[in-house]
C-alpha cells in the first residue's frame, strides 16, 4: 500500500470515491485495456453525470457512447442496473455484497471493487492482475481460470483484504502491481515491493506462473461488407434482437465462407432478405480491407462499394455521415468508415 501511494498511475476515475464513477470504470475495465477506457470513461460520465441520468437514458444513446468498447451487454446491464438502483436503493449503489450481486451485470469482482473502493468495506476481489500476482507470490501451480485456482485465489483475497480500513487501497494496489510491475511477460521484479517473499521470483519461475490453459486457435471468419451511399448518406442495417451486439448498427455484411470475394456477382444469393426475393444490393468495386477480432473470432473483411436495388429492407436505414458519430455502431463499422472515407 505504501508502494501504491508512491507509484500508482493518475487515472481520472481515481480522483473520486463516488460509487457511481467507480462502478462505471470497473464495468468498462473488464476485459478492456486502461488506455482504451481513458477515452471512453470521461465522455460517458460527462453525458451521464449521475446514476439517475443513466437510468433515464435511452438504450441506443448508452450503446452509442459504448460503441467500440465491445462486450455491449455490459452497457445494457449498466443501464438496467441503474434503473434498479433508482427504484430500489434510492439512487445509490447498495452497500452490501448481497444487494450488489442482485443487480444486473454485477458479479463478484464488480461488487468487491465498488464496495471496497467507494465505501472502504472489507470486500475482496480477483481479476487477471490479482491472479498473476498471487500465483507468483504464493507459488500457486494451478491452471489459470480453473475452478481450483479460482477457489484458492478468492480464499487468499478474502484473508488478505484489510478489515479495519484501507480495503479499497489494498485491492487497487494489488491490481496496480499486476498491471505495471508483475506483468505477464518480463515482469520487473527489481521494482516489486514484495519480491523478497515471492515464491516464483525465488525459484526462477515467473515465466511459468500462472500456468496458462492451452490456447485455442481463433476461428477465422471471412466477410464482405458493403458501403452504399446516396447524397451524403450511408445505408446501415441493425443487428437483430437477441444475438451478438443486438440492436447495434453495421454496414450490410455477409459471411462469404467459400465464395471468392473476387467474384461479387456470386454473392447475390447471400444478400436475399428472404428466399425468393430479389437482391437488395448490387456490389461495386473494392474500397479496402480490414481485420477485426471479437472474442474467439478472427475476422478478415473486404469492403466494397454498392448500390441499393429496390426498396430499403426492414431493419435498414439511411444515415447522414454527420449522424454516425453519435450512433450505436459496432466497432467494425467504425473501421469500415475509416476504410471507406
Mean pLDDT: 90
Number of domains: 2
* Low-confidence blocks of residues: 259-278
Count of DSSP strands: 7
Number of helices: 13
Q: Helical amount among residues, as a percent range?
A: 25-40%
What is the CATH domain class of the largest domain? Mainly Alpha
Rounded radius of gyration (Å): 24 Å
Secondary-structure element order, N to C: HHHHHHHHHHHHEEEEEEEH
The CATH superfamily of the largest domain is known as: Hypothetical protein, domain 2
Summarize the structure.
With 341 residues, the protein is of the alpha+beta class. It contains 13 helices and seven strands. The protein has two domains: 2-203, Hypothetical protein, domain 2 (Endonuclease III, domain 1); 219-340, Nucleoside Triphosphate Pyrophosphohydrolase (Alpha-Beta Complex), CATH 3.90.79.10.
What does this molecule look like?
This protein has 341 residues and is an alpha+beta fold. The protein has two domains: 2-203, Hypothetical protein, domain 2 (Endonuclease III, domain 1); 219-340, Nucleoside Triphosphate Pyrophosphohydrolase (Alpha-Beta Complex). The chain has 13 helices and seven strands. Strands 1, 2, 3, 4, 5, 6 and 7 form a seven-stranded mixed beta sheet that branches. Strand 1 (219-230) and strand 2 (233-238) form a beta hairpin. Helix 2 (19-29) packs across helix 3, helix 8 (108-119) crosses helix 11 (167-180) and helix 9 (128-138) crosses helix 11. The radius of gyration is 24 Å and the shape is globular. Residues 259-278 have low confidence and may be disordered.
Amino acid at each position: 500500500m505504501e508502494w501504491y501511494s508512491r507509484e500508482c498511475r493518475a487515472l481520472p476515475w481515481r480522483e473520486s470515491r463516488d460509487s457511481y464513477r467507480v462502478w462505471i470504470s470497473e464495468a468498462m475495465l473488464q476485459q478492456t485495456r486502461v488506455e482504451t477506457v481513458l477515452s471512453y470513461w470521461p465522455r460517458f460520465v460527462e453525458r451521464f453525470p449521475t446514476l439517475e441520468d443513466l437510468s433515464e437514458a435511452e438504450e441506443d444513446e448508452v450503446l452509442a457512447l459504448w460503441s467500440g468498447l465491445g462486450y455491449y451487454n455490459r452497457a445494457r446491464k449498466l443501464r438496467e442496473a441503474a434503473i434498479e438502483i433508482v427504484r430500489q436503493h434510492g439512487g445509490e449503489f447498495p452497500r452490501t455484497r448481497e444487494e450488489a450481486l442482485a443487480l444486473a451485470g454485477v458479479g463478484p469482482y464488480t461488487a468487491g471493487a465498488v464496495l471496497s473502493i467507494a465505501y472502504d468495506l472489507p470486500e475482496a476481489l480477483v481479476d487477471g492482475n490479482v491472479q498473476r500476482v498471487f500465483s507468483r507470490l504464493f507459488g500457486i501451480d494451478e491452471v489459470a481460470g480453473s475452478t481450483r485456482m479460482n477457489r484458492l485465489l478468492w480464499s487468499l483475497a478474502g484473508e488478505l483484504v484489510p478489515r479495519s480500513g484501507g480495503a479499497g487501497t489494498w485491492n487497487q494496489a494489488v491490481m496496480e502491481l499486476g498491471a505495471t510491475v508483475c506483468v505477464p511477460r518480463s515482469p520487473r521484479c527489481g521494482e516489486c515491493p514484495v519480491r523478497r517473499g515471492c515464491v516464483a521470483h525465488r525459484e526462477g519461475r515467473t515465466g511459468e506462473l500462472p500456468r496458462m490453459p492451452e490456447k485455442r486457435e481463433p476461428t477465422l471468419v471471412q466477410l464482405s461488407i458493403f458501403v452504399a451511399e446516396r447524397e451524403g448518406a450511408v445505408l446501415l442495417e441493425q443487428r437483430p434482437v437477441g444475438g451478438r451486439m443486438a440492436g447495434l448498427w453495421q454496414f450490410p455484411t455477409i459471411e462469404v465462407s467459400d465464395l471468392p470475394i473476387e467474384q461479387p456477382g456470386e454473392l447475390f444469393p447471400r444478400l436475399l432478405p428472404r428466399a425468393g426475393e430479389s437482391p437488395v444490393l448490387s456490389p461495386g468495386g473494392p474500397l479496402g480491407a480490414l481485420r477485426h477480432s471479437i472474442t474467439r473470432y478472427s475476422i478478415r473483411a473486404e469492403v466494397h462499394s454498392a448500390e441499393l436495388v429496390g426498396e430499403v429492407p426492414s431493419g435498414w436505414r439511411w444515415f447522414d455521415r454527420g449522424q454516425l458519430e453519435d450512433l450505436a455502431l459496432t466497432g467494425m463499422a467504425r473501421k469500415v468508415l475509416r476504410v471507406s472515407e
